[in-house]
TrEMBL record:
Residues 1-30, 144-179 are annotated as: Disordered. This is ALOG domain-containing protein. The keyword Signal does not apply. Residues 167-178 have a biased composition (Pro residues).
Length: 231
């Protein structure tokens, strides 16, 4: 008995810690119940079985035993609703365990066997006979119920580079247009100004009798243009 009185806040804090405690997940709880059910089945077996002597054949007996508790209608081959996923009226076909439930059950029991000290090599739930049985149940129920158990392929996420917009290219520059500008030539100490075209270069000056002539590009008949120069 504690002699130190508890403060009012201590009781509330302890309640919060209890409520915040994380319990087993749904999967772990279901796996524990399945393991206990299988252990009870071994005890009720005639003759009784131990886990060390359990084989894949005993696992198949356990799965067939569970069919009496199934809730899935599996049509027989002679039923008029064979292959009809939505029969309009009831039929006398038996109820079975769905393939998806059996497949998930074997997965949980296989994990529980190894968690309880079993080795993967001696795991009866991973036996080849169990895998073949589950495959036959899947195929037969798919035909009888008119459904498909094929797994849908997941679409691969597209890379981010495919979603990024392509940068717009700058418009191509226009071809350069012929431009005229003034060009200065120094002739005899004087500046000579002429018009220069990108396509037609300035002709070279020719000195004759104190006058300067420029060879023409064909603008004036005769081929020469006199220009006066002051000395």
């Amino acid at each position: 008995m504690s002699l130190v009185p508890e403060s009012p806040d201590s009781s509330s804090n302890s309640g919060r810690q209890t409520s915040s405690a994380v319990g087993p997940s749904r999967y772990e709880s279901q796996k524990r119940r399945d393991w206990n059910t299988f252990g009870q089945y071994l005890k009720n077996h005639r003759p009784p079985l131990t886990l060390s002597r359990c084989s894949g054949a005993h696992v198949l007996e356990f799965l067939r035993y569970l069919d009496q508790f199934g809730k899935t209608k599996v049509h027989a081959s002679g039923c008029p609703f064979f292959g009809n996923p939505h029969p309009p009226t009831p039929c006398p076909c038996p109820l079975r365990q769905a393939w998806g439930s059996l497949d998930a059950l074997i997965g949980r029991l296989r994990a529980a066997f190894e968690e309880n000290g079993g080795t993967p090599e001696a795991n009866p739930f991973g036996a080849r006979a169990v895998r073949l049985y589950l495959r036959d149940v899947r195929d037969s129920q798919a035909k009888a119920r008119g459904i498909s158990y094929e797994k849908k392929k997941r679409k691969r996420p597209q890379s981010q580079s495919q979603f990024q917009p392509q940068p717009e290219l700058p418009p191509s520059p226009l071809p350069p247009q012929p431009a005229q500008f003034l060009q200065h030539e120094m002739i005899g100490g004087e500046a000579l100004t002429g018009i220069y075209n990108n396509q037609q270069p300035l002709p070279h000056p020719i000195f004759l009798h104190g006058h300067v002539f420029l060879t023409s590009s064909g603008d004036v008949d005769g081929g020469l243009i006199p220009l006066s120069v002051h000395y």
